[in-house]
Amino acid sequence: MSTTGRPDSWAITSPRSDRVKRIAALSGRSARRRHGRFRVEGPQAVRSLLQHRAQAVRELYVTFDGADAAPEILDLAETSGITAREVSSEILRAMTRGEDPADGMASPQGVLAVADIAQRSLTDVLTGLPSGPATVLVLHEVQDPGNVGTLIRAADASGADAVLATTGTADFHAPKVVRSATGSLFHLPVVTGIAPEALFSELRDAGVSVLATSGYAESDLYAAKLPSRSAWVMGNEARGLPESVLADADLAVRIPLAGDAESLNVAIAATVCLFETLRRR
Amino acid sequence: MSTTGRPDSWAITSPRSDRVKRIAALSGRSARRRHGRFRVEGPQAVRSLLQHRAQAVRELYVTFDGADAAPEILDLAETSGITAREVSSEILRAMTRGEDPADGMASPQGVLAVADIAQRSLTDVLTGLPSGPATVLVLHEVQDPGNVGTLIRAADASGADAVLATTGTADFHAPKVVRSATGSLFHLPVVTGIAPEALFSELRDAGVSVLATSGYAESDLYAAKLPSRSAWVMGNEARGLPESVLADADLAVRIPLAGDAESLNVAIAATVCLFETLRRR
What range(s) does the RNA 2-O ribose methyltransferase substrate binding domain occupy (chains A, B) (predicted)? Predict the structure, then answer.
């Protein structure tokens, strides 16, 4: 850090430099896997990363305007001994190149970090659950990155203790997931790429009941007795949960639909279940 | 309709025809206003349109595969005396041209309709509310079309009686809103473009209390007494509700946040409030 508190401006001046290209490549899943790193964009997500997972931060870039608008980012970085580098907004935009334009990417708003993907094991996370009441969210083949990010954010807000994802779910470290989760990805333990077959028995071994939702379930969510340690399993946007998952769940409940809607968006369904769990505590 | 039940194939063969261009232009708000029409895409939304607002349908297009995959669309159209026209998938895609690519447009999945925008007056919709308990959702400057569609869908599912929007809110008839709402736009009355100043007094005149959410409110949602006739007001994604709206509301409640999340996505916040209202009924 310079003595003025402004970021180090050790210059990255070309949007075609190797460093910029390497960071832009993290838009893709294969590059994220190869390097074990991902990109975090925007002041809210980066602030949360610095507060909760500072040890994972490898690189931090800010524009002059970004540093001005979010001075706490530089303070947090300094506290953790992380050097922020000042770059132009052109460079910062080039670092997010390669994203699917359908992502509707906004600008990184002057702040961008590269961090290690900290993959914890399922056993480790289940062992670390609180010994009393516990709530877990399981995503099974949820494919829209915006939905996945919103689901992580809703799980965090409702006080869930972990978010787990089976192999067919959108990558939690994809840029759009990270953005939609607005920091919540760093607030609670996550495990991704879990083989669905073994998951339910591991949950039960940890004393956690498996709960599913279905429009055809007999129990109404608001009338059902919910186990104090439970995992809500949410399925694919179009197909919902497969019959095999529904049959294997300890309890399936129906979210009452009062209007003419045929179904609920997966993030809305999860929110109703997670906040009903929170309300009962 | 042909006697075989297959759609009329009165040919539209050029993606550059005036008809295709006119339908593609409905991606833009100004063309929608000028023509008083909008586009509905995909089997779920078109089915719901035909079931609930058939009289508004002006044109209906299906591909061969679309007709095969959703035969009920042709039956519904026939029942209402609407002629479906068969077009190629190239033509159907051309009809959705002009959309912002950031919309993440999927294909219209073989089915597309053009319908009249049926704008009802606020007074008309408020007069038509049930005389007993009633729930209204008000969107104030909610700007993301995907959020607006999800909000309309959540309102429908929770049994809300109307959705209202102030002038600064994303157009309910924009293609991405219509898609995200997956038919719910046709299930309940909507009024858009309302001047915010007069709205609250009109609601109160109809015996509907104005409820707002705020992270700083004293009342907890789950502990608060909620009026039986109420309008939940939800604000802009980044700025939330302005102070003036909070001050003018009859009741402001705090949604309890149990984790480290700083805030809730607007669709998540609305879902928690609307389903808590439903649960209490």
Answer: 39-121
Please compute the mean of the pLDDT values over residues B58-64 and round it to a whole number.
95
Residue pLDDT, tens place only, B75-126: 999 999 999 999 999 999 999 886 655 444 456 789 999 999 988 899 999 9
Residue B233 has pLDDT above 50, yes or no: yes
- The CA distance from B70 to B95, in Å, is 19
Mean pLDDT along residues B52-68 = 94
- For A19, the token pair is 């460093």
Fold of the domain spanning A122-280: Alpha/beta knot (3.40.1280)
A201 close contact with B: CB closer than 8 A = no
A96 touches B: beta carbon within 8 Å: no
Chain centroid to Cα A83, Å, comes to 25
Does the pLDDT value for residue A106 go beyond 80? no
Which residues pair with residue B38 across a beta bridge?
B115
Which residue in B has a C-alpha nearest to residue A220's C-alpha?
A: B279
Under 8 Å CB pairs connecting chains A and B tally to: 129
- B266-280 and A145-157 are packed helices; what angle lies between their axes, rounded to 10 degrees? 60
In chain A, residues with a C-beta closer than 8 Å to the C-beta of B265 are: 150, 153-154, 180, 267
Portion 26-45 of B in contact with A at CB < 8 A? 44
Q: What is the pLDDT of residue B101?
A: 53
Q: Over the range A31-68, which residues count as b (16 or more CB within 10 Å of their CB) and which as e? A: bbeebebbbbbbbbbbbbbbbbbbebbebbbbbeebbe
Is the domain covering A18-116 a CATH 3.40.50.720 domain? no
A262 touches chain B (CB under 8 A): yes
Contact B271 A271 (CB under 8 A): yes
Distance between CA atoms of A213 and A263, rounded to whole angstroms?
Answer: 11
Judged by a CB distance cut-off of 8 A, whether residue A72 touches chain B is no
- The β-bridge relationship of strands B134-139 and B162-166 is parallel
- Domain locations in chain B as residue ranges: 18-116, 122-280
pLDDT for A100 equals 55
Contact B155 A276 (CB under 8 A): no
B20 contacts B12 by C-beta, under 8 angstroms: yes
Closest residue in chain B to residue A271, using alpha carbons only = B268
Q: Which of A262, A276, A278 sits opposite B258 (nearest CB)?
A: A278
Q: What span, in angstroms and rounded, lies between the C-alpha atoms of B1 and A44?
A: 56
CA distance A70 to A54: 17
A155 close to A230: Cβ distance less than 8 angstroms: no
Query: Rg for chain A (alpha carbons), in Å?
Result: 20
C-alpha–C-alpha distance, residues B95 and B24, integer Å? 4
Given A182, A256, A261, which is nearest B187 (Cβ)?
A261
Q: Can B18-116 and B122-280 be said to share one CATH topology?
A: no
Question: DSSP string of A112-149?
Answer: EEEEE--PPPHHHHHHTS-SSSEEEEEESS---HHHHH
* In chain B, beta strands by DSSP E: 37-41, 57-62, 84-86, 111-116, 134-139, 162-166, 190-194, 209-213, 219-220, 229-234, 251-254
- CA dist A91 and A277 (Å) reads 45
